[in-house]
Amino acid sequence: MPELPEVHTTATILNELIVGLQIADVWTDLGGAIHKGKDHIKDPKFFQKFRVDIQGTTIKSVARRGKNVLIHLDNERTILVHMKMTGQLLCGKYQKQKNNSWLAISPVELKDPFSRFIHFVISFTNGRHLALSDMRKFAKITLLDTATAHASEHLADIGPEPLEDSFDFKTFKIRLLTRPKGKIKQVLMEPSVVAGIGNIYSDEILWKAGVHPLSIVSNIPDTVLKKVFAATKLLLRKGIDFQGDSTSDYRTPLGTKGSFQHHHQAYHKIGETCGKKGCRGTISKLKLGGRTAHFCNTHQQCYNK
């Protein structure tokens, strides 16, 4: 699933590509009776209204909140896109085929096989397109009133943004201690605690800070929590600098790969010697709440007693 750096990169690039463009039409093949009554485009009735509401509008700006992309329109409505596990927002030129599929024309990077699962397309009056590729069809797209978007059920329960200047160590500790008996990896990944951190970056943060993923939050000393806090800021910014992590499906809106995956120290490094200077440990894994945690079996200390 795209995490904060990937979603931030997506929003940043879309700000450069689609602001000022006018929407001509919108298409989707998502939907079905199972989604009846839902407030997103997979409900056919919702999509009909969605289509009417956005046709003819102009893109004002693109922002991020947590793992959500927010596309603000000039009619004071906001398109919210959560890419979920395999979603990609891609921008370029597409051509609709007779079989109702969409073929990427340009840039050439959009022809990446990982980006061929097109299920939603916004067509602009200049002939360009904004497309959602989503192999597993889990992505969510809805339409909100811009003025009240952050109070909606889609955004209201998201925790503070860890890269904002106001997010200091005191705030970080208070947020973590809302789950005092929780295991640190799971608590870092809880979106209502801190926005935007998922499996990849939690592994890398804890490796950097020297904290075992099973450590109980309330048992971690402040001196160590400060290392987790510093690693959170550092690695999320690093992820943005490298335009995200393309270990799996993620691609930027131009179809290109991020490169944070080339800088992993723990995630998917199972069996490799730990890269920490002076450490002779090995990267190991364990199952935690249905996810796999990757960690060094030597220098990452466990605070669970």
Number of domains: 2
Q: Do you know the CATH architecture of the largest domain?
A: Alpha-Beta Barrel
Tally of extended strands? 11
- Cα end-to-end separation: 32 Å
Largest sheet: number of strands, sense, barrel closure: 5 strands, antiparallel
Question: Kindly state the mean pLDDT as a whole number?
Answer: 97
The number of helical segments is 6
Concise account of the structure shown:
The chain has six helices and eleven strands.
3D architecture notes:
- The structure is a single chain.
- With 305 residues, the protein is of the alpha+beta class.
- The protein folds into 2 domains: 4-65 and 67-151, MutM-like, N-terminal (N-terminal domain of MutM-like DNA repair proteins, Alpha-Beta Barrel), CATH 3.20.190.10; 169-296, Helicase, Ruva Protein, domain 3 (Orthogonal Bundle), CATH 1.10.8.
- The protein is built from 6 helices and 11 strands.
- The strands form 3 sheets. The protein has a 5-stranded antiparallel β-sheet with strand order 1-7-8-5-6.
- A hairpin with a 4-residue loop joins strand 7 and strand 8.
- Helix 1 (4-17) runs parallel beside helix 6 and helix 5 packs across helix 6 (222-241).
- The longest helix has 20 residues, at 222-241.
- The protein starts with a helix and ends in a 9-residue tail after the last strand.
- The mean pLDDT is 97.
